[in-house]
Write a structure and sequence with these properties.
- With 407 residues, the chain is α/β, with parallel strands linked by helices.
- It folds into 2 domains: 160 residues, Aspartate Aminotransferase, domain 1 (Alpha-Beta Complex); 240 residues, Aspartate Aminotransferase, domain 2 (3-Layer(aba) Sandwich), CATH 3.40.640.
- Helix content is 38%, strand content 18%.
- It contains 12 helices and 17 strands.
- The strands form 4 sheets. Strands 4-12-11-10-7-5-6 form a 7-stranded mixed sheet, sandwiched between helices. A 4-stranded mixed sheet has the order 1-2-3-15.
- α3 crosses α9, α10 runs parallel beside α12 and α11 packs across α12.
- The longest helix is centred in the N-terminal third of the chain and has 21 residues.
- The radius of gyration is 22 Å and the shape is globular.
- The structure holds pyridoxal-5'-phosphate.
- Pyridoxal-5'-phosphate binds next to α4.
Length: 407
């Protein structure tokens, strides 16, 4: 038994070392080699299991290896992997229909990732705006992806630093500041790109008044309101899309992450007013909307519908938020808990990297963003028991932080 564990530890170290040698160091990685997952759990090479409260960086929103997604993929693998977009598949049309039925009338463009979906949105806005209207207003603290245009769109200087000159045409304003939007608006403005709940920015919600005024302003000035739902979409907040909490409807919406239940896919959804802006030859993607990705997406929608996961995300989200609130007070570093559904942030008064590391050592995987905000995005299938277990670990870990030698 001991030799087996020794062997597995050796295999973990070897995998980490090999990655260090051959994989570019673009990610800050934790020393964990994951070999399999199921629901809210993942296993490392030694067989140790971890409760995953940040599954797939929000891409595995249904938990790992959801049976409906796995069965759909298995079935499709036996038929055909890839069909180019100069032909049709049944799955692509059906997934587009599902996305439209759950959002607003319009049409879908399929991509492979969030950044690509946002690129498509920006290209649509520019085509629609014509050559003199191309500027897009985005928010400070936002995150829209890592392509060159998206680091320019993202409202965080650190993401773009060192990659100048950046593509032009993006203007950042403070989040939730309508006056700032009015100030930067000019005759070149074509659209506003907004995360209704900022993810990387620290689980920050758009204020209802701001959204109302922004939507009215976009209407008045004939601007496109574009919702980045890459992180907040697919039921995470208790509704399919975060904008549905606000009583407004965007003109364009982007999706990725858990759209494919863990399988890579992205989508840009254009409302009926602008749905035919990108005509033949204007945009494309070799793999976009592949049969595998679309079958996974259809299975993800089926899981959400048949298993009542929107309601579940609301209920479990309320429960988790209530439990996290209890971490406040006394000498606890927790100063605020915020977010909606199962998209929650715990703000600390000190850096959270140590908390994430200690939680992992104790068997719980979470994330920290903006240095001090623990990001907790469990699977929509998470159980009450798993939430209690996670909070028990967090309570211990946050308590441990108070002792001087533990940090
Ligand atoms: C809101 C938002 N938009 C876009 C992206 C980029 O998505 P991807 O990494 O799939 O390109 C992310 C990724 O974290 C995101 O959170």
């Amino acid at each position: 038994m001991e030799t087996q564990e020794h062997h597995a530890n050796g295999a973990m170290s070897a995998a980490i070392e090999m990655s260090g040698t051959y994989v570019q160091p673009t990610y800050d990685r934790s020393p964990l080699v994951i070999s399999k997952g199921k629901g809210s759990w993942v296993w490392d090479l030694t067989g140790r299991r971890y409760l995953d409260f940040f599954p797939g960086w929000a891409a595995s929103g249904l938990g790992h290896c959801h049976p409906r997604v796995m069965n759909a993929l298995r079935d499709q693998v036996g038929k055909i992997l890839h069909v180019p977009n100069n032909y049709f598949t049944v799955a692509q049309g059906r997934l587009a229909e599902k996305i439209i039925q759950t959002s607003f009338p319009g049409k879908v463009f399929f991509a492979n990732s969030g950044a690509e979906a946002n690129e498509a949105a920006v290209k649509l806005a520019r085509r629609w705006g014509g050559k003199d209207r191309y500027e897009i207003i985005t928010m400070a603290g936002s995150f829209h992806g890592r392509t060159l245009a998206m680091v320019s769109a993202t409202g965080q200087a650190k993401v773009a630093s060192g990659f100048e000159p950046l593509p032009e045409g993006f203007v950042h304003v403070p989040f939730n500041d309508m006056e700032a939007v009015r100030r930067v608006f000019n005759k070149k403005t074509a659209a506003v790109l907004l995360e209704f709940i900022q993810g990387e920015g620290g689980i920050r919600e758009a204020e209802p008044g701001f959204v109302r005024d922004l939507a009215a302003f976009c209407k008045e000035k004939n601007l496109l309101l574009m919702a980045d739902e890459v992180q907040s979409g697919m039921g995470r907040t208790g509704k399919y899309y975060a904008w549905q909490h606000y009583g407004v409807t965007p003109d364009v919406m982007t999706l990725a992450k858990s759209l494919g239940g863990g399988f890579p896919i992205g989508a840009m959804v254009a409302g009926s007013r602008v749905q035919d802006t990108l005509g033949p030859g204007s945009h494309g993607s070799t793999f976009g909307g592949s049969p595998l990705a679309c079958r996974a997406g259809l299975a993800a929608f089926e899981a959400i519908e048949r298993e009542g996961l929107l309601k579940q995300a609301s209920l479990m989200g309320e429960f988790l938020k209530m439990e996290l609130e209890k971490l406040k007070g006394g000498s606890s570093p927790v100063v605020a808990v915020r977010g909606r559904g199962l998209m929650l942030g715990v703000e600390l008064n000190s850096p959270g990297a140590g908390v994430v590391a200690r939680a992992r050592e104790q068997g719980l995987l979470i994330n920290c963003t903006q240095e001090k905000i623990l990001r907790i995005l469990p699977a929509l299938t998470v159980t009450r028991g798993e939430i209690k277990k996670a909070v028990r670990i967090l309570t211990r870990v946050l308590g441990a932080q108070e002792t001087p030698h533990a940090s």
